[in-house]
């Protein structure tokens, strides 16, 4: 089971507790889960498929975690990139690893269905030993 599903399961049990705290804000487990659901829906709607490398490059720690978990939910491989890279450096890195450019979804999208391990992605299927987890 992808890591994201364990996180979302935990979020259901501890919705109001803080999940991530930064100097700028506190994100509850419910907030985190909602952001993950939104971003996962945007990735699915954008055609992200199982095994796709999804570049995640943001300096905001809450958004970084949210987008990384969203890619995991849809069966893709989140590719965590350095947010300090210039657009040219990012493009070069994506070319080297063969990742197709995927626009990072925002967490302010309309809500989507709550993905579960069985229906997280139309082609996600069951995780197997050959699956990549996360990349950086």
Description:
- The radius of gyration is 14 Å and the shape is globular.
- It is α+β, with helices and mostly antiparallel strands and 136 residues long.
- It is built from four helices and four strands, in the order H-E-E-H-E-H-E-H.
- The strands form two sheets. A two-stranded antiparallel ribbon has the order 1-2. A two-stranded parallel sheet has the order 3-4.
- The two termini are 20 Å apart.
- It has helices at 3-13, 29-45, 61-73, 87-97, and strands at residues 18-21, 26-28, 53-56, 77-80.
- Helix 1 crosses helix 2, helix 1 crosses helix 3 and helix 2 (29-45) packs across helix 3 (61-73).
- 34% of the residues are buried.
Q: TL;DR of this structure?
A:
With 136 residues, the chain is of the alpha+beta class.
The shape is: globular
Rg over C-alpha atoms, rounded to the nearest angstrom: 14 Å
The overall strand count is: 4
| Amount of helix | 25-40%
Mean pLDDT, all residues: 80
Helix count equals 4
Instruction: Classify the secondary structure makeup into a structural class.
Output: alpha+beta
Strand content: 5-15%
Strand order of the largest sheet: 1-2
Termini Cα gap: 20 Å
Run of helices and strands: HEEHEHEH
Question: Which ranges are low-confidence, i.e. pLDDT below 50, for 5 or more consecutive residues?
Answer: 109-123
Largest sheet: 2 strands, antiparallel
């Amino acid at each position: 089971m992808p890591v994201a599903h364990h996180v979302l399961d935990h979020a259901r049990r501890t919705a109001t507790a803080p999940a991530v705290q930064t100097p700028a804000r506190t994100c509850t487990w419910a907030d985190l889960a909602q952001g993950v659901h939104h971003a996962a829906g945007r990735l699915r709607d954008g055609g992200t498929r199982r095994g796709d490398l999804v570049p995640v490059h943001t300096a905001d720690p809450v958004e970084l975690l949210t987008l990384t978990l969203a890619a995991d939910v849809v069966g893709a491989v989140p590719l965590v990139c350095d947010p300090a890279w210039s657009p040219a450096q990012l493009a070069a890195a994506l070319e080297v690893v063969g990742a197709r450019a995927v626009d990072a979804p925002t967490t302010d999208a309309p809500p989507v269905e709550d993905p579960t391990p069985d229906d997280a992605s139309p082609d996600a299927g069951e995780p197997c030993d050959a699956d990549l987890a996360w990349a950086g």
